[in-house]
Amino acid sequence: MNSANNVGMTGETAFAKAVERIRHLVRSGEILPGGRLPPERQLADEFGLSRSSVREAIRALAEQGILESRRGAGTFLAPASGATLLKRLAVAAQGQNARVSQVFEFRRMLEPQMVRKAVVNVTDEQLEQMRGAVRRQELDIETGGTGRRQDRQFHRLVAEATGNPLAVEAVRSLASLFDVPRAKQFDSPVRDRASLESHKRVLNAIEARDQDLAAKEMARHLSELEQLICGTEE
Asked: Where is the HTH gntR-type domain positioned along the sequence (predicted)?
């Protein structure tokens, strides 16, 4: 019975377990794109969790675009598309406990090329948005914050400037790999300031419409950030 489930667990722990069990169904191929998930009650019994924990997990994964809830029909794994494949990449990496160094290696394969495209396509309005993100990042750091939200915004704006929606989804999916409690241990004033200064150099190169310099500065930014973060990784 569901009333006996979640014994000894906090609501947050039960929710996290439900999310991971559903992600396992996706990674293992037990549920194919477009396929229907078992009913909540069945999943709750199989997982040894309450229906409310399973329901919250399904809602969270639906918000990420991995699942689709259809009224009167049930919950389905989102059909394969460029965007959903990128989201599933993030799910797979989380399941395999991808090391930070692997994430940054993958980012270096993508983001320097993205910024090359951004240099060609960026509009004056997008440039002003990037400047605003950097200004807000600096202000947040100077007032005791980490600037992390503005950091992500800057990378998203660069991706948007490519004009390719898959670039935006790639950046969002990779950013989601750091949406875990351990990410807090990576924050430090040195890391935050280094990220800000790197963004300024990337922005200057974009403003100068210099593709080679922009790609070089983006690669440098990611390498420096990796060195700072991996120095704290166990």
From this structure: 12-80
